[in-house]
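The authors assume throughout that readers already know how a fold can be written as discrete tokens. The format is easy to grasp once an entry is in front of the reader. For illustration, here is how one protein appears when written out as sequence plus structure tokens:
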Amino acid sequence: MSMTIDEVREFALSLPESMEVEHWGKPSFRLNNKIFTVMQDDGITITVKISAEDREMYTSMDPDTYSVPDSFSNLNYMNVNLRTVDPQELKGLIQKAWSSVAPKRLVKAYSEGK
């Protein structure tokens, strides 16, 4: 089971104070103008913000699903293939990416409200 771009959009926008903003012609999801997820032109790849340690773990664990574009080697982002990723795992990654750019008070309020 995979997620669609529309499902990614719906989930990303369900996170408190997140908004969709165009980024180089692609939809991006931001909080306080900080990007946490970007949809790629192919319609099956999204890019998520992630720590360097987690990125290393995911890309080693499942390189067919998780990858790092050459141009992103020094940035804390990775690509995720929507055709092969587990939807719950992807939601967790998007939520973690959102948490990495969100103010602590907002993250706390969100986690307490779940």
Remarks:
- The first strand starts at residue 19 and ends at 23.
- The helical segments are 5-14, 52-61, 87-101, 104-113.
- Residues 5-104 form a domain with the Aspartate Aminotransferase, domain 1 fold (CATH 3.90.1150.30).
- The chain has a mean pLDDT of 94.
